[in-house]
Amino acid sequence: MRKKFSNILAPTDLSEAAHAGVQAAFDLVSEGGKVIVLHVIDDIPLTYGYVGMSIPDPQVVARLMKGAEEELEACIPPHPPGIEVTEKVLTGNPFEVIVRLASEEEVDLVVMGTHGRSGLKHALIGSVTEKTIRRSPCPVLVIPPTAQPGSEEGETR
Ligand code: ATP
Ligand code: MN
Q1: FRET partner for 23 with CA separation of 20 to 30 A, picked from 31, 78, 88, 157?
Q2: How many domains does the chain have?
């Protein structure tokens, strides 16, 4: 079957649960297509500027960005050489950055995990996923983590 998505945005919080979404993006992209893998840093510690305003410390931000870039690189699954991969680390509110990039890059599809790092068992989907679905300019495909046999997620009732 010819795959039709040629420009996919795959946001990840670098957790195991989000990885299912990144993998699915690579499974779905068409030959010669592009996957943008995005991590948004949202918990930047603030320091105090001399006018009494809290500001992010540029050195701390640089260190966080570098660490995230390395982790993001490590999440890229094996893929055919024809697939173009763009890795991006940005700062801000995750869902706002995801929606803005989806629109700027005119992606066909956003693929993301139902859950991320906090993975609250009783919430149907994570808050970043929910807000992205509400505001996205394109379809959003939501991927659950692989259910482990015997785990709560594997139960059907
Ligand atoms: P919570 O609502 O408590 O954060 P959660 O962490 O389980 O719950 P989400 O944060 O919504 O759930 O994560 C769901 C998906 O959203 C992730 O699999 C990932 O695709 C995306 N996502 C979440 N946070 C980020 C982030 N900081 N950068 C990029 N993508 C993110
Ligand atoms: Mn989260």
Answers
A1: 157
A2: 2
